[in-house]
Amino acid sequence: MSMLRGSGAYAMDEERKYKVGVSIVIPVFNEINTLRPLYDSITAVLKNEKKEYEIIFIDDGSTDGSFAGIKELSAADSRVRLIKFERNFGQTAALMAGIDAAEGEIIVTIDGDFQNMPDDIPLLLREQEKGYDLVCGWRYERKDGFFLRRIPSTLANRLISWIFKLRLHDYGCTLKAVRSKSIKSLKLYGEMHRFIPGIIAHEGGKVTEIKVKHNARAFGKSNYGLKRVLKVLFDLFLLEFMMYYSTCPIHFFGYFSVAGIGLGVIVGSFTLYQRYVTNLPGVNLLPLVLLTMFLILIGVQTILIGILAEIAIRIFYETQKGSTYCIEKVINRPK
Questions:
Q1: What residues does each domain of the chain span?
Q2: Neighbour count for residue 243 (Cβ, 10 Å)
Q3: 3-state secondary structure of 241
């Protein structure tokens, strides 16, 4: 089992009885002005669907009265549920809390700032009926700043697509529809919510994207900045390690070890050549000797770190009774 998933296997999720057909998960942080119009738009769209639904708002430490606004909606509509954080934990934590609480077979995530349009939700659901585990929104005509939002986003999307080998135009769009069995056991941290498509595809899920509308932000201010871009890059590096080397960290550290020792041998050979073959007078070889020792020492230390990580991983899987694989289905032969 992937270390990005919890101990509960999702392979047997097909037997689960869902209470509703669709769960709408909405992270909220200081969005008091958009709550009512967003709720009205969602209910107007979903009343034409033939599926029972629920709407889950996650108040991520709002300070503008959003909690009171959601509470009012919940009191008037039993399909509205509310989760309140003690403080601001970030969008990934809010989404995971909503996903954990969701009781629907299909989970639709959407931002609380009303930049995503609820009338695109049926399009996601229709596309998912073709057999996809996850349908992502693609903000084809994005209404955001060019330099601080769209350019960094484009570069990030290309990098993430390259890492996951899944070509998507818009990993950052919150508007998604995903099967509960594919996402319930995921454990995400930091800014990793944007990597959900890549993780699901990496574990064998079918992922696609469709064009969706995008509104300019009418109220409040965006929480996106260049600092967040750095967080995404750090999370992407961690995720790369967790996906491809979490069961064999010695391979990851081994590359650096071989590179360090190899460079040390090359520099050391060059030093010996200068000392005993060229033998140029007045040449100080001490820096090369120190560099040789440094590179070899780094290589040895790196391989030792890999061995310790390997031991830690084995202890994790054995004590947690986990496995290094995920089973989609088990079919027994008839007796």
A1: 11-245, 249-317
A2: 19
A3: helix
DSSP tag of 116: B
pLDDT score at 262: 96
Beta strands of the chain (E only): which ranges? 20-28, 53-59, 80-84, 104-109, 134-139, 176-179, 207-212
Give the integer Cα–Cα distance in Å for 11 and 94.
25
Return d(Cα 96, Cα 14) in angstroms, integer.
21
Strand, helix or coil for residue 50? coil
Segment 103-139, tens digit of pLDDT: 999 999 999 999 999 999 999 999 999 999 999 999 9
Rounded CA-CA distance 61/77 in Å is 23
For the domain covering 11-245, report its CATH number.
Answer: 3.90.550.10
Quick one: pLDDT at residue 155? 84
Q: What is the pLDDT of residues 50-63, one digit of tens each?
A: 889 999 999 999 99
Length of the chain: 335
User: Environment class of residue 90 by beta-carbon count within 10 Å: exposed (0-12), middle (13-18) or buried (19+)?
Assistant: buried
Distance CA 301, CA 23 (A): 49
**What residues in the chain have per-residue pLDDT under 70?**
1-16, 145-149, 218-229, 281-282, 320-335
Nearest to 72 by CA among 63, 62, 82, 64: 82
Give me the pLDDT at residue 222, please.
61
Residue 39: CB atoms within 10 Å = 22
Alpha-carbon distance of 333 to 258, in angstroms, equals: 48
Q: What is the pLDDT of residue 11?
A: 43
Spatial distance between the Cα atoms of 304 and 300, rounded to a whole number of angstroms: 6
3-state secondary structure of 5: strand
Q: Tokens in use for 270?
A: 């060059």
Name, in order, each residue with C-beta under 8 angstroms of 277's C-beta and a sequence gap of 6 or more. Answer: none
Bridge partners for 84 per DSSP? 59
pLDDT of amino acid 275: 85
What is the predicted pLDDT for the residue at 300? 94
Is residue 253 a contact partner of residue 302, using CB atoms and an 8 Å limit? yes
Cβ 94 vs Cβ 27: under 8 Å: yes
